[in-house]
Specification:
Layout: H1 2-63, H2 70-77, H3 100-103, E1 113-120, H4 125-137, E2 143-146, H5 155-164, E3 167-170, H6 183-201, H7 217-222, E4 227-228, E5 232-233, H8 236-239, H9 242-248, E6 257-261, H10 265-280, E7 283-285, H11 288-294, E8 304-305
Parallel strand pairs: 1-2, 1-6, 1-7, 2-3, 4-8, 5-6
Amino acid sequence: MGKENGHEAVESDSLRDRARASLKRRKKELRTKLILLNAAIAMLVIMVVLVAKVASLNTAMTTGKKVEKPIEQSAASMVPEVTSIPSPTATPTAKIVSGKDRWIRKNLDKKKKMVALTFDDGPFTPVTTSILKTLKKYNAKATFFVVGNRVPKSSDALKQEFALGCQVASHTYEHKYLTGLSVKQIKEQVDKTNKMVAKYIGCPTTALRPPGGNVDARVRKHVGVPMICWDVDTEDWKSRDAKKVLKRCRSITDGNIVLMHDLYPSTAKAVKKLVPYLIKKGFQLVTVDELFYYKGITLENGKVYFNGK
């Protein structure tokens, strides 16, 4: 009985050993299969990528075009298309060498009375465009003495002035009294304004109004352009009252240059009545350059003019 039990114990241990060996062998075989499967999947992915690359190269060779990187294509598509500004606000063509080609009409009657309405300190879009609307309605022209550093914020108004045939002139770049500046600063005030104006309308100014009308011998020598003052002052900046502005315009005669400012709504309101009133009185409303052209007066650089008489 004891021998049989010992034999059975030995046989049981042998079976367990074989079972463990079998399990170990199956695990090893399973790991091997998993490794082979992963290797096969990796090879398949590599083959797919290679096939795609070959197809892409074949397409490029067939079309004769270079294969561009996606990021380059994206960057190119982000560049906006440049479009021109439609008339009448478009920048003029290179044919216009001087603004006089635009703001001196050659079909006016030199025998009829003329007056030049002028506006300082703009452009200021709300008021400037209101004045332009009135001028356009009556086919009248005026001269706008612009401050250079105010142009960018109201460039559309500046373009409208030019498109309407009004004269664009300089009132310096920062509205500084020229008599208090050095020679270099005087020239900078003139040149910077001309560059700013030309940027938007394609040509520089042809005349300048010195702030405050202040001029001395040094300014006359170095300013480099004709200077236009006035002989009728509406004092619109002082009264801010359309009725008072109109009252001061009752004395207008042939050849006058009238001072106003396109900064105040009251001035625009006065212009609505002043323009038809002057036309009814037989006046032609002209630019400053037109006034001197038809009066036969040749403007000289550095000289100050108060009227066209």
